[in-house]
């Protein structure tokens, strides 16, 4: 194992402050950095020595022999233990779970996000299938801490084994149910989960608490249970490695990967890269970003994807349709550059609203209006190609107009989808409606 790198910014909030120095011995579970304000504690995931403390990271050289034992967190109230353990949202931006669960729902809902929305990722579903007991304990702790009366697992209906596993586990639970989701992107977006499970459409500026709910990722509830039941700090991550790998493009699912592990180590563990490749993505096909072999796994890393080479546009003029559900303009420009295209026009999906922090949020995730006006803009500006990063429904509306204008469409996920033999995002072919199980179970 190579040296591990622990980024000081792994979650929402300011970078953490180191509490170790070069030469210090650390154990698995040793506290190495603390938040300045909003944030979460960071722990060593290995036994070893601190190699260096840099401006943005701590580098630890691991011992050759590693033990299973870890330094436990202190006993306290369930909420105090979640905060001390440094648990954050393991499926998104990494919002501190202790802050999120500090909301008194006064009888509302815990919505367990088990959508695993990004295509090609499978670790959330595998967790349910293999560790439902601890997952369910985590849900109950979240209900207890936040004073929620009910919990709902939001999961795609296609994951039949996982659905049946949940169904069996909650058979005697009167206050915990399942809501089945269609297999379209982005059903895992926080407000989409609220809309689908509770029938309430929140404004882009509203939090789930406006619907008397807290949305929490399925891996996060597992880490909550581990903090309270095992006194275990949050220093590991479940993840998927997939793509152009020796041995085939089947997904490699890993549980409890030590935070700080390099992308290179994860790829080599999965067979290594098979010949020429396009790019390495950290995260999912829609919201992930290009990464390098040296970059480290963080608490929010869900996937590592090695793609086939991207097509060459030979300098052709390109329009970028930026969507709140997919990559940022920066990411789309990155893809266009790798395809040797020339950006001549940029537009935003008509439902993408800019927030005060500069991020985009969709007015109604997964339910998209027509995009003909944007396609007309691209045509007027001389584009021959469009690069889009839109949701399933929005891609559908683009395809209703772009081909008629002789605009060629490339979805930012195309090279990933071709790598993993997944249908391209073009025409919506699945229903948005899913028949629910009797009585929500």
UniProtKB/TrEMBL annotation:
UniProt lists the gene as: prdC
* UniProt domain NADH-ubiquinone oxidoreductase 51kDa subunit FMN-binding: residue ranges: 82-225
Q: What is this protein called?
A: Proline reductase-associated electron transfer protein PrdC
Specify whether Repeat is a keyword of the entry: yes
Q: Where is the RnfC Barrel sandwich hybrid domain?
A: 3-55
The record's keywords, sorted A to Z, are: Electron transport, Repeat, Transport
Query: What domain of life?
Result: Bacteria
Q: Which PANTHER family match?
A: ION-TRANSLOCATING OXIDOREDUCTASE COMPLEX SUBUNIT C
Q: Is Electron transport given among the entry's keywords?
A: yes
């Amino acid at each position: 194992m190579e040296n591990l790198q622990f980024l000081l910014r792994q979650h929402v909030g300011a970078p953490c402050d180191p509490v170790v120095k070069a030469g210090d011995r650390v154990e698995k579970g040793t506290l190495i950095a603390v938040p300045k304000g909003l944030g979460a504690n960071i722990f060593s995931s290995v036994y070893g020595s601190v190699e260096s403390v840099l401006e943005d990271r701590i580098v630890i050289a691991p011992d050759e022999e590693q033990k299973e034992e870890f330094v436990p967190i202190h006993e306290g109230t369930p909420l105090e233990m979640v905060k001390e353990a440094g648990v954050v949202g393991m499926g998104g931006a990494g919002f501190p779970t202790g802050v999120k669960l500090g909301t008194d729902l006064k009888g509302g809902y815990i919505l367990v996000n088990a959508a695993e929305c990004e295509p090609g990722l499978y670790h959330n579903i595998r967790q349910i299938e293999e560790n439902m007991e601890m997952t369910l304990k985590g849900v109950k702790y979240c209900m207890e801490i936040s004073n929620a009366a009910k919990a709902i697992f939001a999961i795609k209906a296609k994951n039949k084994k996982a659905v049946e596993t949940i169904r069996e586990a909650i058979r005697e639970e009167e206050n915990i149910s399942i809501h089945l989701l269609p297999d379209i992107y982005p059903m895992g977006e926080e407000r989409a989960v609220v809309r689908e499970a509770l029938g309430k459409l929140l404004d882009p500026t509203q939090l789930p608490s406006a619907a008397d709910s807290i949305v929490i990722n399925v891996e996060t509830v597992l880490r909550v249970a581990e903090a309270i039941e095992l006194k275990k700090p949050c220093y590991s991550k479940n993840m998927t490695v997939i793509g152009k790998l020796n041995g085939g493009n089947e997904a490699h699912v890993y549980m409890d990967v030590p935070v700080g592990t390099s992308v290179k180590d994860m790829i080599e563990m999965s067979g290594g890269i098979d010949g020429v490749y396009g790019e390495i993505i950290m995260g999912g096909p829609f919201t992930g970003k290009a990464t390098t072999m040296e970059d480290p796994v963080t608490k929010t890393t869900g996937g590592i994807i090695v793609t086939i080479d991207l097509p060459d546009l030979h300098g052709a003029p390109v329009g970028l349709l930026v969507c709140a559900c997919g990559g940022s303009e920066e990411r789309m420009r990155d893809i266009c550059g790798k395809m040797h295209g020339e950006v001549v026009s940029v537009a935003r999906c008509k439902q993408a609203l800019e927030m005060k922090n500069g991020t985009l949020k969709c007015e109604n995730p997964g339910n998209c209006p027509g995009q003909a006006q944007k396609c007309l803009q691209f045509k007027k500006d001389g584009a021959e190609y469009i690069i889009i990063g839109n949701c399933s429904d929005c891609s559908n509306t683009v395809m209703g107009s772009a081909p008629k204008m002789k605009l060629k469409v490339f979805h930012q996920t195309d090279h990933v989808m071709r790598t993993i033999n997944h249908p391209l995002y073009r025409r919506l072919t699945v229903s948005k409606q899913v028949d629910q199980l009797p009585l929500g179970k």
